[in-house]
Amino acid sequence: MPPSSARSSVEHLNVLIVGAGISGIGAARYLKTELPSKSFAILEARRASGGTWDLFRYPGIRSDSDLHTFGYEFKPWRDEQSIADAPRILDYLRQAATENGIDAHVRDHHKVLGASWSSDEARWTVEVERDDTGERTTLTCGWLFCAGGYYRYDEGFTPRFEGLDRFEGPVVHPQHWPQDLDYAGKRVVVIGSGATAVTLVPSMAGTAAHVTMLQRTPTYVMPIPRADVVANALKKYLGLRRGYALSRRKNIAQQRLVWSFCRRFPKPSGDACDSFHRWPEDMDLLAGLGFTDYRFSIEWARIEPAPGEISRAAIDHYRRMIEGAHQRGLRPLVTLHHFTTPRWFAARGSWYAEDAADRLARFAEAAAPIYADGVDHLCTVNEPNIVAALLPILAQASAGAPAKGLPEQLVSTGLPEPDAHLTEALIRAHRRAVEAPTRRTCAPAGPSPSRPVKRSRARRRSPRSTAVRARMSSWRRRATTTGSASRPTPAS
Questions:
Q1: Which of 217, 310, 361, 450 is the most exposed place for a label (fewest CB within 10 A)?
Q2: How far apart are CA 63 and CA 78, in angstroms?
């Protein structure tokens, strides 16, 4: 067959896109809208679109970027989750393909074997194999757009580890996660500290006996909420498209700011407060200075990151702190609630919710293995009178109402008057928390109200200050009438 006849029998397209993931679908949409006269096709080696978000199935898979910037400019992200899980992202991508008539251009099971460029003919020649039939074909195109990502879909990179052949347990690559893998009660090591590990470790921790992240170089991690409150509000009040556009600009500006900051200050501070990881150093300092006690708080959000999901890894961590204190001759004093609460607890009404006391009790029960042995005193709620006084003002401020006069009030009279409803709620929570741990431990438990600070002995007490003292004394009397197990710890 003459060369010209052979070329005429080969299908030619203006544009050939390799990969039907987020990049391929986006490129196809812009081709259809901005260059509607150009012919194109999308070659997808697998039998489904979606790329990464269809391939990976490991526990907890989600985006590590917000969907207002990771998503398409032409299709607003409607979901309240800004940091979204894989099923939501996959639905979003496939909706975009269907809404823009792209599905008809996708050729599944078409794997690109190679491509060569001819300057004389100004075109690419692409060799393709159908992985379902083994048939090989040749396509030509004027523009070849590679949207296949930066890793192999059929085989993820696996480093060579000496002695791996002697390991008797299963070795799993996240890219090929077995759907029937049972790791409940198992001790797991996750090698690496990138985006995959950051999402995988906390998802496994709730079921596995213990999960360890093995890393060569620590990763900088910035915790942010899954839901972008500002973005959701913008979409609600300005409309979907305008709100989405502003959210994209806001998040791009934030990312540029973080990038610029890291470029400006590339080195870690080295002196940052990080007692969660540096508690051995803290305890060594205390023991070396002759102190005998070490008080620390169990962060509720670490023990119960989502309602009903208990992290065994976090429980093991705090238990190691108890053991570390005893090894240094220190008596551990544990606090259950020290101002901070999980984001989900705040979203469900915080201490205003009817079931707030029950939720604290369930947290206390879940955390009982930490302090069931080796702890002489347990603080249920740290400075509850301050919580009851300031939480209403903070709630108003978060709702957009100005906290008028608060700084002046704190300077002149001390704490504002505690909210009566919150006071009762915190007392109920304290009592319920006492009931829970006493089933597991005999450690005395109680709140630690804050004493108003005397600014000057020469200054007379104002009636307001005297009233606060009286309310605090009443707080102590009411909160500690639940029996011998609820003896209050010394006030801070």
A1: 217
A2: 15
